[in-house]
Specification:
The complex is a heterodimer of chains A (227) and B (330). Chain A is an alpha+beta fold and 227 residues long. Chain A has seven helices and five strands; from the N terminus they run H-H-E-E-H-E-E-E-H-H-H-H. Chain A folds into three domains: 19-57, no CATH class; 72-112 and 131-150, Beta-grasp domain (Ubiquitin-like (UB roll)); 160-226, DNA polymerase, domain 1 (Orthogonal Bundle), CATH 1.10.150.120. Chain A has helices at 32-41, 54-57, 97-104, 160-167, 177-187, 196-202, 213-226; strands at residues 76-82, 85-91, 123-126, 129-132, 145-147. In chain A, helix 4 crosses helix 7 (213-226). Chain A is globular, with a radius of gyration of 19 Å. Chain B has 330 residues and is an alpha+beta fold. In chain B, the strands form three sheets. Chain B has a five-stranded antiparallel β-sheet with strand order 4-5-8-6-7. A four-stranded antiparallel β-sheet of chain B has the order 9-10-11-12. The termini of chain B are far apart. The mean pLDDT of chain B is 97. The interface between A and B is medium-sized, with 33 and 30 residues.
Chain lengths: 227, 330
Amino acid sequence: MKKDQNSETIPDSTNSKKPADSEQGKADGFSRRAFLAQLSAAGIAAATVPLIQPAIAGAPAMAAEPVADQQVPGAVTFVLNINGKDRNVSLEPRVTLLDVLREDLQLPGTKKGCDHGQCGACTVHVNGRRVNSCLSFAIMHQGDIIITIEGLAQKGELHPVQAAFLEHDGFQCGYCTSGQIMSAAALLKEPCGADDASVRECMSGNICRCGAYDNIIAAVQEARHSS
Amino acid sequence: MQAFEFVQVKTIDKALGAIGRPQAEAKFVAGGTTLIDLMKLNVERPKTVVDINGLPLDKIEPAPDGGLKIGAMVRNSDLAHNATVRQRFTVLSEALLSGASPQLRNMATTGGNLLQRTRCYYFRDTSYACNKREPGTGCSAIDGFNRIHAILGTSEHCIATHPSDMAVAMMALEATVLIQGSNGNRSVPLNEFYLLPGSTPERENVLGAGDLITHVTLPALADGTRSHYLKLRDRASYEFALASAAVVVSMNGNRIRRIRVALGGVGTRPWRSLEAERALEGREADEKNFRAAAEAALRGAKPLHDNAFKVELAKRAIVRTLKVTTSQTA
């Protein structure tokens, strides 16, 4: 019997209380993301497919590192430390930190908004400071400590900023949210005035087309007061 | 973005060696906030990129004369939040914090900020003729949409505004740029560092192809000197200036003893206004004299089709900044 393809038919192992799963590249679980990835690899539009059991589909393990036979001319092999792990990459120098995270390291939580340092959606932490990953080459960051949104929660516990964003509904579409959260988390360690106007200024490098600013400010202030 | 050879250097000698070979067509990358932005647009197309983030030029130190010596690799955020800069060179801290965003300020460097390039949309778009980007092709802005362009220092070849806030504050602080190159070391007063476009808008400053900015020095300020930066723009933050003013002043009672005035957002280079200074030194700090100085500063302005409002806006920015600085308690 064919189930209605609009109903939730796939068991969801990306439990929102276990944010560490997204960092492990699904090596020990099967997620919606992996399922959709292997569907598009098979050339099947996800909207029209009947129910497929994960076990029968035999999804290939998501490759954590680039495969040798995909070597690009001019590529340089080096190591990046991301979210506490050393990751081997082989890239042309012109690949930005933003693109290596999203395209090569299966860390698409960092978003590409403008790609020119004008929106803040690509904000990550490099050596504890918030930066725009779109305006830096990956190869410049050997030896740096890089944290992305996927690495913010520690030991299964949400970061105070993440918890505050949930409590204050600090997002609508969610596209700017990774950058907002990374920016706010770094802001906790920067000089910034106590009032809302100061927080607006200190968060001015992250823009939100949905206009969730009031709730974002409230979330940031909550996180500042609780830490 | 076209491919390039990437080189990382850890010493000034290696940096000069890497940049010096003409065939290399090399550019330095520090924060990357200007270079990588323009490389994505194919406006900058170096064949070699030399990463100088490892150079030991990241200190802010007192200078022997009581001033400040700032390494070229000091990040804009570190410079802005430095206690000495905040307290004694306040205009510099205010100018830095008015610019860009916190993320960009964490990446951008002192040297890079001086060398940032115009935001002119025709310069940034390779579909348009641009004398600065490709000499001799024409200026699309003069008969185009020129709201953000300059009213001071323009020529018939180029009207592009210099966008830096930090450089305007440093002009008013009479900074000096220290440069090392294949021909040795030299120091250039910031007021002589930038070039007017004239008929060679592709040449923006006196650096040669093999040069590296190593430091910026600021002379000591007299006790009781007050300073302020005012930036006017369409949005409240995260945007370049339509007009801005930096004032550094020391008073004798209500009389102006010594004053420096620089303008941003309106010039083809960070604009030191000797005209305003001459109109104010020795005078009473009152609105009439402020207004007269503002008129003198903008007397040579050449407004364009879409930026005539900048003339009055710049005058009011000068008057307001003068009011703020001359009424501050030391």
